[in-house]
Write a structure and sequence with these properties.
Blueprint lengths: L4 H4 L1 H28 L4 H4 L13 H10 L20 H31 L4 H20 L7 H9 L6 H23 L5 H16 L9
Helix pairs in contact: 2-5, 2-6, 5-6, 5-7, 6-9
Length: 218
């Protein structure tokens, strides 16, 4: 999917944007909900406990999602000292976003298998569900990469909580986002799809579980 689709197939482009916004919004809302459940009101106070897409958009992350099918939303802030479980609370919050995408792709995958024989692959609802499956799977896998600002980095930080890992954590926080940006630029500008190559295997394995490989380019 890219901007040329806007002119060649505007309906498909609109469906893609809607699918992106739904997946991204639910993902970030789930982080905020998990933080609130864990006792920290920061996300709620900042208006992130919301299903309004505008509350969660990181414009560069959204552009990456639209152009190359992986990206991120605006990170949900939380105060680890306000969490009821300060040791594992950040882990639960980090996992909440990818887990929400897992639930959505599972629901959409089941709906596709039920509705495809009835409506056919050219039906707009089926096409939209296919896009939702694609973006939720890609968003889940991409966000598990352990580089800031992605959820995988928060999960790693929570797991490596012992003092002996502090130096590594500091380097990851300082340089991880630059590494991620470099990988994205390699993909978008130079066509060196390192991220796509790493995530392609798990993506097609998940699509295969629902019998969706080869459908809508999945």
């Amino acid at each position: 999917m890219n901007l040329t689709t806007l002119f060649s197939d505007p309906i498909l482009f609109v469906l893609w944007i809607v699918a992106v916004l739904v997946a991204l919004t639910v993902h970030e809302f789930s982080h905020a909900l998990a933080a609130t459940w864990m006792g920290d009101p920061t996300a709620k106070r900042l208006g992130r406990l919301s299903l309004n897409p505008l509350a969660h958009i990181d414009w560069f992350g959204l552009l990456a999602l639209v152009l190359v099918s992986f990206g991120w939303g605006k990170p949900v802030p939380f105060n680890p000292y306000l969490l009821r479980d300060q040791k594992w609370g950040p882990l639960y919050i980090g996992l909440a976003g990818p887990f929400s995408n897992l639930l959505m792709l599972t629901l959409v995958g089941i709906l596709l298998r039920l509705l495809l024989p009835i409506l056919g692959s050219n039906n707009l609802l089926i096409v939209f569900l296919g896009l939702c499956f694609l973006i939720n799977t890609a968003l889940m896998l991409f966000n598990l990469i352990p580089l800031p600002p992605l959820d995988g980095s928060k999960i790693i930080m929570a797991l490596l909580h012992r003092p002996k890992w502090y130096a590594f954590r500091e380097k990851l926080e300082s340089y991880g986002s630059w590494v991620l940006m470099g990988l994205i630029l390699l993909d978008v500008v130079f066509g060196v799809g390192l991220i796509s190559a790493v995530l392609g295997g798990p993506y097609h394995w998940i699509a295969g579980l629902f019998g969706l490989n080869g459908l809508f380019g999945l």
